[in-house]
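Ticket opened by: R.M.
Priority: normal
Category: complex prediction / small molecule

The reporter submitted a protein together with NAP and asked that the result be attached to this ticket for the collaborator who will pick it up next week. Submitted input follows.
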Amino acid sequence: MMLRRLGRSDCLVSAVALGTVKIGRNTAVRYPRPFALPDDAAVDRLLGTARELGINLLDTAPAYGSSEERLGRWLRGRRQDWVLCTKCGEEFDGERSRFDFSPAHTRASVERSLRRLGTDYLDIVLLHSDGDDLAILESSGALETLIELRRDGLVRACGISAKTLPGALAAARCCDVAMLAYNSEDTSMAPALAACAANGCAVLVKKAFGSGHLCATPEGLRQNLATIYAAPGIASVVIGTLDPSHLRENVGVAEGVMGEQMLWIERASAYLNKRYGLSLEDVGETEVDFYRRWHDQGNTAEEAIEAFGEKYDLQPIEQR
Ligand SMILES: NC(=O)c1ccc[n+]([C@@H]2O[C@H](COP(=O)([O-])OP(=O)(O)OC[C@H]3O[C@@H](n4cnc5c(N)ncnc54)[C@H](OP(=O)(O)O)[C@@H]3O)[C@@H](O)[C@H]2O)c1
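Result attached by the on-call engineer:
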């Protein structure tokens, strides 16, 4: 599985990450069907498959029931192989959530996550938003506390799992990492993805499959991942599953989609150079931006470049 840089850090994360809500919590969730929590053998198979597929990023949270504790038990002796993302601010008592973003609770929550996960540092800690993103970021003191914990070496990167566009745009300015919902049915966070990419804030995508409502067909699944990987700034797509065969399918489709995009970019770059003597650098666009803007403008990369040439009135080399 392809590794991508986590924003400005030197941490490399797999382009698909495993979301672990379902290993610890099955009440007050929005999945299409009820499910039983997996036993330890099933968790072992799932995490073993993730490892085998090259996934190195696990996403959890105190609000995901027993998820952190179960991961902590499984990770004994394996910690160094994984990048761990957890959260703070939401507490779930089995029926409902309450939220606390005070500095004291933020610090206590991080210390508890360290104990539960059996580690002396957390790679990523995100504020687990209740929807009031801007107030959490700007006036709760929680982000400042995470920054202190980062300075002390207990946390490597900090940010927010945001729910609003203004919150996500603010995160692009002040966070290392933003977790944002994005899929083919809901691209409302697109301006925040662009802002995150411009500022070096890493994006982790949540709800890629609309919590299981957008992956009923292989085409739906592919379409979502194609939309997401064509967006700028994406470090990893956090997909929740309990099923190792779904995980395998997701990684296969993700690799296929990213491979097609890279191939398109290679062909488009080669044709741009052959036809107009230009490189993508000359055009002043990143590869992903160029792909997003132009790949739908023709059936092939070459047709898209012809459309590009026409739009900007470029003279082909042989006519000069
Ligand atoms: N506020 C937050 O911070 C927040 C909120 C939501 C999510 N998250 C994070 O993001 C992760 C993902 O979000 P999510 O769990 O809400 O939703 P999701 O990843 O959009 O969808 C997960 C659902 O899709 C199903 N699924 C996955 N792959 C499939 C496949 N190949 N074929 C058919 N079904 C498939 C899973 O069922 P199976 O188990 O049957 O595969 C599961 O029910 C979470 O686990 C969590 O780590 C964070």
